[in-house]
């Protein structure tokens, strides 16, 4: 596995490989890799000639007071995990992607201000900006994202569509622990008792899904059911949001009499902010 730190070197390498007719699969990450990331990397490895993993803790998607400095970092461990799977590790410094005088950003309006975006102003501007940078530098044929961060995937897909980027966005299923907790680098923040409580978000979403499958069509009632599950867990410090949404527009639904339903939530347990979602056919 080759490690590249400079954007120009990475870009030159990618252009040469694309000119040779090689396909490139990109897995963008912020490191602290877990089995969810590994599933994305294996998919990129299987479906492309060259698999590229980027590790970059992107400062522009963290607001003041968020966990940029504390975000889990384990470069040595990450390298060992991907050594046999990735062809290239792109490992830039902050100054390489955001050189002095940097003043350009990308804002995907509408989608970015909903759900998580309502509680993390500027977050998805940072996501869209760094993703566009990575796409321009690495020139991927396909880019792989996990559905656990559903809103992020919606923002990236809109970015690709609106700017006519020649990248196929591949969405991969959420990878979960045995008790249902969606795998996330931020799970490392959870103390033992908090870790036991954390699957409550998944249980709440599952309860909402069960209600819809049993015939509940009132989205307000579905929200109540999910909030009731969360309320029974005393370690849930704060509920940012939990509701039923249109999976394309991310707008809250008044009823679920339609083919696609996104149930999504964001909660705080201890020092961790957890997000999760379930996407399904509400009429089945």
Major sheet size, sense and barrel closure: 6 strands, parallel
* Gyration radius over CA: 19 Å
Instruction: Give the name of the CATH superfamily of the largest domain.
Output: HUPs
Please list the strands of the largest sheet in the order they lie side by side: 1-4-3-2-5-6
Q: What separation lies between the terminal Cα atoms?
A: 45 Å
The CATH architecture of the largest domain comes to 3-Layer(aba) Sandwich
Query: Beta-strand level of the residues, as a percent range?
Result: 15-25%
**Count of alpha and pi helical runs:** 10
Q: What is the typical, i.e. mean, pLDDT?
A: 96
Helix content: 25-40%
Order of helices and strands: EHEHEHEHHHEHEHHHEEE
**Given the C-alpha coordinates, what overall shape results?**
globular
């Amino acid at each position: 596995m080759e490690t590249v730190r400079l954007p120009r070197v990475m870009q030159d390498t990618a252009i040469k490989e694309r000119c040779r007719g090689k396909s490139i699969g990109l897995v963008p990450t912020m490191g602290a890799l877990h089995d969810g990331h590994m599933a994305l990397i294996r998919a990129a490895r299987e479906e492309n000639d060259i698999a590229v993993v980027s590790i970059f803790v992107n400062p522009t998607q963290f607001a003041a007071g968020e966990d940029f400095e504390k975000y889990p970092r384990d470069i040595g461990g990450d390298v060992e995990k991907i050594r046999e799977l990735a062809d290239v590790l792109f490992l830039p410094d902050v100054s390489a992607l955001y050189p002095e005088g940097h003043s350009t950003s990308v804002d995907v309006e509408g989608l970015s201000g909903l759900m998580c975006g309502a509680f993390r102003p500027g977050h998805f501007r940072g996501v869209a900006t760094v993703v566009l940078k990575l796409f321009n530098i690495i020139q991927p044929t396909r880019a792989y994202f996990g559905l656990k961060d559903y809103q992020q995937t919606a923002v990236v897909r809109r970015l690709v569509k609106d700017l006519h980027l020649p990248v196929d966005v591949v969405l991969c299923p959420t990878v979960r622990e045995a008790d249902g907790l969606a795998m996330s680098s931020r799970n490392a923040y959870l103390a033992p008792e908090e870790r036991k409580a954390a699957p409550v978000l998944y249980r709440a979403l599952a309860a909402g899904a069960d209600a819809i499958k049993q015939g509940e069509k009132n989205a307000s009632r579905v929200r109540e059911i999910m909030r009731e599950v969360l309320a029974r867990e005393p370690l849930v410090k704060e509920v940012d949001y939990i509701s039923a949404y249109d999976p394309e527009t991310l707008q809250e639904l008044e009823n679920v009499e339609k083919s696609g339903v996104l149930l999504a939530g964001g909660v705080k347990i201890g020092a961790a902010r957890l997000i999760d979602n379930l996407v399904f056919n509400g009429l089945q």
